[in-house]
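Changelog entry

Holo records now carry the ligand SMILES as an explicit input line rather than a separate metadata file. Below, a converted record for fe (ii) ion, shown in the new format.
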Amino acid sequence: MPSPLRRFVAGLDEQRSGGVPDMDEVGRLLVDLAADEEFFAPLIDQLPSAAPGDRWLVRPDRGPRLVLVHRPDGVMGYTHSHDCWVGIAPVRGVETHQRWNAVCYDDGRAELRLAEERALIRGDVATLVPPRDVHNHGHVAGSGPSPYSLILLGDDMLLFHRKEYDPEHGTWQALAPGDPGRANR
Ligand SMILES: [Fe+2]
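Structure line, unchanged by the conversion:
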C-alpha cells in the first residue's frame, strides 16, 4: 500500500480502537489525506474527466474502505442511505453534498426535507452516521469545477438493507443487500 494510504489506515485504526470512531477525528484524517496533491494527481489523471468514474484505494473484506470518485459536470448521484458511517472530502473541484431528513411510508411515499446543503472543496469534509445518513452528492452545474472526492465508508454497504429516495417525487424504494442502486440522476 502506498505510504499516504498506509498512514491514513494506521490513523483510522487508532481512532477505531475505542469502538465507535470519533467522526470529527475521522474527518480530520480524511482532509489531511485529501491534501496530498502529489499522491492524487496521477490517480486523477487516470479518471477521464467527461465520464463518472471511481478508483478503489483501500478495500478490505470488512471494515473501513476508501474510494476516489469523480462525477462530471452537472451529474448528481441518487439519494440513498448507507447503514454505516461515511466521510466525504474533495481532493479537487466542488462536491455538492445534500443531507436529507427522511420519513418513509409502507406505500412507497417518503417525506424528504433537506437538512443540509454544502458545496465542499478541498479542506472540507462531511461525515454521516446512521440513521442520519440519507444523502446525495455530486456536481451542480455552475458551482465550479467537477469533483474528485474521497469517499470513506465504515463497512461494505452492500451487505446491508438500504434505501434509495427520490426527493422530487417524494418516493423511496428498498435496496436489497448487493444492490448498489442507480448510479447517477
Ligand atoms: Fe453515499
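Spot-checked after migration. Residues 3-16 form the longest helix (14 residues). Residues 160 and 177 are 5 Å apart (CA to CA).
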